[in-house]
Batch of 2 targets.
Target 1
Amino acid sequence: MNPWKEAILETDPDLDVEIWPRVEKNERVTFAVVWNQPPNVLNSYPNLGVVSSLGAGVDHLISDKTLPEKVKVTRVVIPSLKEQISDYVLNAVMNYRFNTATYVDQKRIGQWNPIDPIQKADLTVGVMGLGEMGQSIIERLQLNGYKVFGWSRSGSQVGNTVCYGGDQFDDFLRRTNILVNALPLTSETNGILDLEVFKKLTSHSYLINVGRGAHLIEEDLIYALDTDALQGACLDVFEEEPLPTHHSFWNRPKIMVTPHVAAITDPKEAAKVIVENYKLSLSGMSLMYEVDRGKGY
Ligand code: NDP
Ligand code: OXD
C-alpha cells in the first residue's frame, strides 16, 4: 500500500483515502494532501475545501495558479522536521569549521595536510527566517555554543537571541559569517541570496541554503566564490531538482550538494496532523498550520 495511505488509515481506519490519479468520483474529494502537484489537477475537484502540503513548505501550492481561491492551504509541521533541519545545519556549520570536504579530497590522494579549524568564538551564524524551522535551528546552534542572530520580516524575538527586522537586513548581514537561509519562497524572497548580500557578510563567510533553490541567484554564488566574497556553500535545495547532471555546482569543490534531504517528512508522524486537520475541516473549526495565501507562507 502507498505509505501515505497506510499512515493515514493507521491513524483513522474509517477514512476513505484515494491515491491520485486513481480517484473514482472527483466530487467526493473534500481534502487533498500533495507535494509538487502538476497544474490543473486541484481544480478538478469541485468540493475541495482544504489542501495540505506534505511538508513544511507550501510554495508549490501558492504558485499553483490553478488552485481555486476558496481552497484553504495547510502544511505539516512536526517535531522530527525541526529536529532534522537543525541537525543538518549544525552538521554543515561543523563541516565548514573543520574543513571536512577538503579532508575527503585529501584522503582520496593520500595527502596529510592539516588546516587550522575556524574557532567557534570567531563565528556568528545569521539565520534568515524565524519560523518553525529557523527557531529550531537557532536553538540547536545555541545549545552547541554558537553565537547566533536572526532575521525575519517582523523581527520577532526567539528567546534571548538578537533578532533583526525586515528593514535591518544590512545590519544583520554585516554581523554574520555563516548565513543560513530558512525562509519560505515567496514573491518577496525569490532571489534574495544575491551578490550584494554575499558581499556584506563578514570574514569566514559561508552560505547554508535549506530554504528553496529559487532563493539563490546561482551565477552570483559562483561569482562570489570565485572572488572570495564567500568561502563556500552547503546547498540542499535547487532551482531545478534533481540538480541536472551537467550543472556546474557538481564540479565546484567549494559547494557541498545534498539532494533535498535536510528534513524529510515522516508519513506516520505527519498523518496525525493531516487527519486532525481533516476532522477540523469537517467541523468547520480553525485549522492547524493554515497558511495565509496572500502572504504566501
Ligand atoms: P514559517 O512560515 O514557520 O516561517 C517563515 C519565516 O520567514 C517567518 O519568520 C517569517 O517572518 C519569515 N519571512 C517570510 N517572508 C519574509 C520576508 N519577505 N522577509 C523576511 N522574513 C520573512 O516557515 P518554516 O520555518 O516552517 O519553513 C521555512 C521554509 O523552510 C519552508 O518554506 C521550506 O521552504 C523550507 N524547508 C526546507 C526543508 C528541507 O528539507 N530543505 C524542510 C522544511 C522546510 P515573520 O515571522 O515576520 O512572519
Ligand atoms: C519541506 C521540505 O518543505 O522538505 O518540508 O522541503
Target 2
Amino acid sequence: MPKLRFLGHSAFYIEGDGLKGLIDPFLTGNPQAAAKAGDFTDINAIFLTHTHGDHLGDTVEIAKRTGATVFTCNETAGWLASKGVKTEGMHIGGRAKFSFGTVKLTPAWHGDPIIEDGQIRYGGIACGFVIEVEGKKIYHAGDTGLTTEMKLLEAENIDVACLPIGGYFTMDITDAARAVGFIHPVRAVPMHYNTFPKIAAAPEDFAMAVSQANLLGTEIVILNPGENLEF
Ligand code: NI
Ligand code: MN
C-alpha cells in the first residue's frame, strides 16, 4: 500500500514498492516543514514541478547527497544536470515506465524560471505529475490555476489528488473544488496554503465546497504537516 506523507506547503514524501520519493522538497526555510532535508538519506526519486524556491527547495542538495533521480521538464533537467544531478527530463503529456512504476507530466498554468547569479533563464514550463506505484495513481498538480486540461485526468482514475487551494499564485478553494469535479479522484489532499500570509486558506472550507458541489465520490483528506495517508 503506497504511503504519502505531507511535509508542509507542496512537499510530500511518497513511498511504495521500489520508490522512496520526494515531491517539491521545500524544507529549508519552509515555516511548515515537518522534516529536515538531512532526514532523507535513501531517496531514489525527486519529482520537481517547477523551479520557484518554494518547490525547488532542497532538491539539488538532496539529489546530490542521495543520488536520487530528479524528474522534471526537460529544460529544468538540463540545468540540474549541469549541477551534477541525475535527471529524467520529460515533458508535458509524456509518460514513461521506470523500475517503481510510471510517471506522466501534466500541464500546469504557471511560470518556471531559472534564477541564478541575478540572471533569469528560461526553465521550460511548470508541470504536475501523475505517479503510478503499486497500481495506485497520485496526481500532484504543482502550482497551477484551474484548467480544463484537468478534465482529461478523470480517465486516469486518480486515487489521490494533491491540489493547491491557497489562491494568489494558484487555484483558490472555489477553483480547487471545481478541479475535484473535473478529476473525480478517490481522495483529494489540499496543499499550498497558510505557508505565507498571501495564501491563507481554511482547508475545512475546501471540504465544505466539495460537499456543497455534491462531489460525494471524493473524500477530502486534510493532512497536517507530518501526517501520513496510505492508499
Ligand atoms: Ni510557483
Ligand atoms: Mn508555489
